[in-house]
Design goal:
The complex is a heterodimer of chains A (243) and B (213). Chain A has 243 residues and is an alpha/beta fold. Chain A contains six helices and eleven strands. The longest helix of chain A has 12 residues, at 106-117. The radius of gyration of chain A is 19 Å and the shape is globular. Chain A starts with 12 loop residues before the first helix and ends in a 22-residue tail after the last strand. Helix content of chain B is 16%, strand content 24%. With 213 residues, chain B is α/β, with parallel strands linked by helices. The chains are: A alpha/beta (243), B alpha/beta (213).
Chain lengths: 243, 213
Amino acid sequence: MSLPAGPKVYADARAALEGVVRDGITVMSGGFGLCGIPEKLIDALRDSGVKGLTVVSNNAGVDNYGLGSLLKTRQIRKMISSYVGENKEFERQYLAGELELEFNPQGTLSERIRAGGAGIWGFYTRTGAGTLVAEGKEQRVVNGDTYVLETGLVADLSLVKAWRGDTEGNLVYRKTARNFNPMMASAGRVTVAEVEELVEPGILDPDKIHTPGIFVQRIIRGTGYLKTIENRTVRKRPAAGAP
Amino acid sequence: MGWTRDEIAALGAQELRDGFYVNLGIGIPTLVANYIPAGMRVVLQSENGMLGMGPFPFEGEEDPDLINAGKQTITELPSSSYFSSADSFAMIRGGHIDLSILGAMEVAGNGDLANWMIPGKMVKGMGGAMDLVAGVKRVVVVMEHNSKDGAAKFKPRCELPLTGANVVDELITDLAVFSRPDRHSPFQLRKMAPGVTLEEVRAKTTAKFLPPS
């Protein structure tokens, strides 16, 4: 079956990163934990061999999957994240002084990315007032509450994952796999999206587009998604015949 | 002795009110969902982008695209909605969430909370905790009363880096419940686990608190 074609459509993840990756760039990578991460594009970024990356991502993957695989190969110089507790290699590299780390509160991180994509240089938030996060930042007291100045974030390259997309770059996410992806799509100078299903324009309901195509420069269809579950939790089925 | 994890969760559930939008943290706070009184309408928010969190899925029905903030597989309800992390924290920071129940490493008598970092030792990050304590109307902390070596965790000042300054409204431990009517008032001891005495609570607490009235 041939894929829908168009100027934004690339054959695969490797092709989609050609000409937009180089050493030392800032890369945003969507996802929460392992949910909604651009797994094909992360693998292609690793295989490109670029080094000295600053990576903006809520989490850092697990040891051998997602961004964890780029930590192993030492391609990341600095991470901007809110929580990295699932990655032992990350903790080891950081405590050994091999990796720079900037912790942002999760809401501050998501708003910094939203602001960056929306052309807003900075904003004041109560989050982090009176903590390490506020140190060295301008603060204002308004109606008795202390607010901390946080700045917008943009990236040279944003990698996002959606469920469905069309050749115009319009994206639809699925359930909690949306998370950081929409803001990151808007905050990348170049945004590359990977989708499970790539369709012609007109198939997706225009009223249900989550990320309009203007934010997406390149798009690929990924295949063979692993979609690893970090923490499988289930409940017992009620026994057959039970009231 | 003291209360079990489930008994602590049940005490946390007493803070729920009909119509509340609630965010529950990882660990014991998650168990609070098991003690929502029958007939009470409570909407659980998950900061990774969901309102109306349902129970764990039946085996074989796990969906990798549907997790909570603890990365556990969950289910949706007919009333559920999904949104981005930016919208999620607009709810949290914007004061739209009624109650946050979360864990802690230390709580101070002045309402300070520390739960995200042990310098040089534990590097996990604050996740959404700083936003939650800064933006949610009422903040309830659940934790073990003492550390494994017996040291007090409810103390005059937090020694670990803060998650928020003067943000805790109520503290539930395995030994006792402390709360305060507003953030200018000191904490008062409200309840003790069966068999626990005021003397024992005093001996295991270094924060100042008012005795039960």
